């Protein structure tokens, strides 16, 4: 596997593959890789001819400096995991390679960023859109792979690619979970064993809400019940619990059989902010 630290070197290398009509797949990450990230790498290896992963903890998307400081960094281990997975190249830039001057551009996504992560992490999606735009310009992949774990990010990036006309297909892959259901996350590394058990309640609440909605409970009631459930778990501080329309992530109205519903939550456990979601197809009338 090739390791690139400079964007120009990566760009030139990929150009050679492009000239040979090789399709390029791209998996952007912030490192501390786990099986969730590796599932994206595997999908890219399956669907494209040349897979590039990037590892960059993007300061522009952290609205909380403490969160940025504590974000786990383990580049050697990440490189070994990518190599073993069969990834072809990794891009590991320093911050000034990506931001030679402080960026001034801001992105705004209207209603899509007024809810959930966008509401609770002001500026977060502007930072995400900025880094993904920069990386798409460098890599110019045919396909880019993202995890449903960050569902609102997926919707934001679909909009970004559509609005700016990037020639990249966005592929969204299912959330990889531990055997007990806990969504894999780099942030789980910061949890104690007890914290991990506490975090599992997020998945329990999501599942209970999904069952409630399918059983005909009004979404507004189901989401209030789920929030109350989480509020009663010791050492867990829920931030939000929403049941929304799956595509727009806006309030659910007139839900019909077969409609996609997103159930999304965020909570703090031991000071670590965790998110999770389920996408379900409504089975009612
Ligand atoms: P991150 O390193 O957290 O920025 O994540 C990089 C990519 O991996 C994003 O597209 C995430 O949605 C995805 N990802 C993170 N956790 C998981 C997971 N448990 N399952 C699938 N994809 C994931």
Question: Could you name the key traits of this structure?
Answer:
Rossmann fold, 2 domains, 9 strands, three-stranded antiparallel beta sheet, six-stranded parallel beta sheet, alpha/beta, binds adenosine monophosphate, Pantoate--beta-alanine Ligase, Chain: A,domain 2, 285 residues
What does this structure look like?
This protein has helices at residues 7-19, 35-47, 65-70, 75-85, 95-98, 116-120, 124-139, 151-164, 193-214, 219-231; strands at 2-4, 24-29, 50-55, 89-91, 143-147, 169-173, 236-245, 260-269, 272-281. It is α/β, with parallel strands linked by helices. It folds into 2 domains: 2-173, Rossmann fold; 186-277, Pantoate--beta-alanine Ligase, Chain: A,domain 2. The strands form 2 sheets. It has a 6-stranded parallel sheet with strand order 1-4-3-2-5-6, with helices on both faces. Strands 7-8-9 form a 3-stranded antiparallel sheet. Helix 7 (124-139) crosses helix 8 (151-164) and helix 9 packs antiparallel against helix 10. It is globular and about 55 Å long. The model has no long low-confidence stretch (mean pLDDT 97). Bound molecules: adenosine monophosphate (AMP). Residues 29-30, 36-37, 39-40, 146-147, 149-150, 173, 175-176, 183-186 line the site of adenosine monophosphate (AMP).
């Amino acid at each position: 596997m090739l390791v690139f630290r400079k964007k120009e070197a990566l760009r030139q290398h990929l150009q050679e593959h492009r000239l040979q009509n090789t399709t390029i797949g791209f998996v952007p990450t912030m490192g501390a890789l786990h099986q969730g990230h590796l599932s994206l790498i595997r999908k890219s290896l399956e669907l494209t001819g040349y897979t590039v992963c990037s590892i960059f903890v993007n300061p522009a998307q952290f609205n909380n400096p403490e969160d940025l400081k504590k974000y786990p960094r383990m580049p050697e281990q990440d490189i070994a995991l990518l190599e073993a997975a069969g990834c072809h190249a990794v891009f590991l830039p320093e911050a000034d390679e990506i931001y030679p001057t402080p960026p001034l551009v801001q992105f705004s996504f209207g209603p899509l960023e007024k809810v959930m992560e966008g509401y609770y992490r002001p500026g977060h999606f502007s930072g995400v859109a900025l880094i993904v735009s920069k990386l798409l310009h460098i890599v110019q992949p045919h396909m880019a792979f993202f995890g449903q774990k960050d569902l609102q990010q997926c919707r934001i990036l679909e909009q970004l690619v559509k609005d700016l006309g990037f020639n990249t297909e966005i592929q969204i892959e299912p959330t990889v979970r531990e055997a007990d259901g806990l969504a894999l996350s780099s942030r789980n590394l910061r949890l104690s064993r007890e914290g991990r058990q506490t975090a599992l309640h997020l998945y329990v609440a999501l599942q209970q809400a999904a069952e409630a909605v399918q059983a005909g409970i009004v979404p507004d009631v189901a989401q209030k019940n789920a929030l109350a459930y989480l509020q009663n778990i010791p050492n867990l501080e829920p931030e939000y619990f929403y049941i929304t329309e799956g595509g727009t992530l806006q309030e659910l109205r007139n839900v019909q059989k077969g409609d996609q519903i997103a159930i999304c939550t965020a909570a703090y456990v031991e000071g670590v902010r965790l998110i999770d979601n389920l996408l379900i197809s409504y089975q009612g009338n």
